[in-house]
């Protein structure tokens, strides 16, 4: 849900913003027959760029995930588009809708594409559309802005070192099925870069349970970023389920999380981290067999270690 000023203030507030957008951005070149990929706020209506406001006014067509949502957004800014100027392009029709956009572009129109929130084509629809337009030899121009990925990273305290080691991996939404999700967490368990994960409220408890096997690995949780009830906390992965359970409100809203980089693996002794992850999801013998294949550790040593863990 977008955060908007009181209704009585919207018109005057954004009338000034639209004029400022005109003053700041109108002098730039906005070619026709071009797809503009426009970032919109992830929650707070004030997080819109002047360039985005100007382009949304200028566009002949606004392609979007949800025409009703986008119409509400545009009207909040005082931008008036006829319903015929809104074109639905979402995950269920994206492949087919590419042709509709191409038709508009080939007629010389400017088409703006927006997702429901944030930067399009980043775990949102839009990538197929961009690829289709480029394949047709037509230009694509990005208008940067809000993104939950960079927002949560900026509050995580994760950085690259002076040798350029570090950085981050964007994993998006992990699989919804428990076994596949556990395998995905296992694959990320030894990642030496930060990992950004997104999740919806109805699946956050399941994700917390899957991540808990990472033990003391630091995790920065961003909930309802930029919105009224924004909450950002850094805790251990093992503590994440308890943190959610401590307040019923914490399972509400959209989530962006940063799994901090894994510490460098020890050069001595069996790799207990991988074995523990596998034991949390699989029978003992299967976990030992896979751990041996993954780590190269002797199977007998891993088996004895697994028995020790089971007895605790």
Provide a brief overview of the structure:
The protein is α/β, with parallel strands linked by helices and 312 residues long.
How does this structure look, described?
The structure is a single chain. The longest helix is centred in the first third of the chain and has 19 residues, at 7-25. α3 links the parallel β2 (61-64) and β3 (86-88). A 5-stranded parallel β-sheet has the order 3-2-4-1-5, sandwiched between helices. A 5-stranded mixed β-sheet has the order 6-7-10-8-9, with helices on one face. The protein is α/β, with parallel strands linked by helices and 312 residues long. The model has no long low-confidence stretch (mean pLDDT 89). It has 12 helices and 10 strands. Helices cover 40% and strands 16% of the residues. The chain has helices at residues 7-25, 50-58, 67-76, 94-106, 127-135, 148-154, 178-188, 204-211, 240-245, 272-279, 284-295, 299-311; strands spanning 34-38, 61-64, 86-88, 110-114, 140-143, 168-173, 194-199, 218-223, 231-236, 255-259.
Q: What is the fold's blueprint, element by element?
A:
Blueprint: H1 7-25, E1 34-38, H2 50-58, E2 61-64, H3 67-76, E3 86-88, H4 94-106, E4 110-114, H5 127-135, E5 140-143, H6 148-154, E6 168-173, H7 178-188, E7 194-199, H8 204-211, E8 218-223, E9 231-236, H9 240-245, E10 255-259, H10 272-279, H11 284-295, H12 299-311
Parallel strand pairs: 1-4, 1-5, 2-3, 2-4, 6-7
Antiparallel strand pairs: 7-10, 8-9, 8-10
């Amino acid at each position: 849900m977008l955060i908007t000023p009181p209704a009585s203030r919207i018109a005057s507030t954004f009338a000034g913003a639209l004029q400022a957008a005109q003053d700041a951005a109108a002098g730039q070149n906005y070619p026709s027959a071009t797809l503009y990929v426009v970032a919109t706020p992830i929650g707070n209506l004030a997080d819109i760029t002047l360039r985005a406001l100007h382009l949304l006014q200028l566009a002949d067509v606004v392609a979007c995930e949800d025409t009703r949502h986008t119409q509400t957004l545009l009207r909040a800014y005082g931008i008036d588009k006829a319903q015929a100027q809104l074109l639905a392009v979402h995950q269920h029709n994206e492949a087919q809708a590419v042709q509709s956009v191409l038709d508009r572009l080939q007629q010389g129109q400017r088409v703006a594409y927006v997702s429901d929130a944030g930067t399009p084509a980043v775990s949102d629809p839009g990538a197929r559309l961009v690829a289709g337009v480029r394949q047709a030899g037509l230009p694509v121009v990005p208008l940067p802005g809000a993104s939950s990925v960079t927002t949560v990273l900026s509050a995580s305290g994760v950085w690259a070192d002076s040798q350029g080691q570090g950085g981050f991996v964007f994993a998006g939404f992990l699989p919804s099925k428990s076994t596949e999700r556990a395998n995905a967490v296992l694959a990320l368990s030894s990642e030496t870069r930060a990992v950004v994960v997104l999740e919806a409220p109805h699946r956050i408890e399941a994700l917390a349970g899957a991540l808990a096997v990472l033990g003391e690995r630091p995790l920065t949780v961003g909930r309802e970023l930029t919105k009224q009830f924004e909450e950002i906390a850094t805790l251990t992965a093992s503590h994440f389920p308890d943190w959610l359970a401590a307040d019923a409100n914490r399972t509400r809203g959209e989530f962006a999380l940063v799994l901090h980089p894994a510490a460098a693996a020890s050069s001595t002794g069996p790799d207990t981290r991988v074995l523990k992850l596998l034991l949390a999801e699989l029978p003992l013998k299967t976990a030992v067999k896979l751990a041996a294949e993954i780590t190269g550790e002797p199977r007998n040593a891993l088996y004895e270690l697994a028995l020790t863990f089971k007895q605790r």
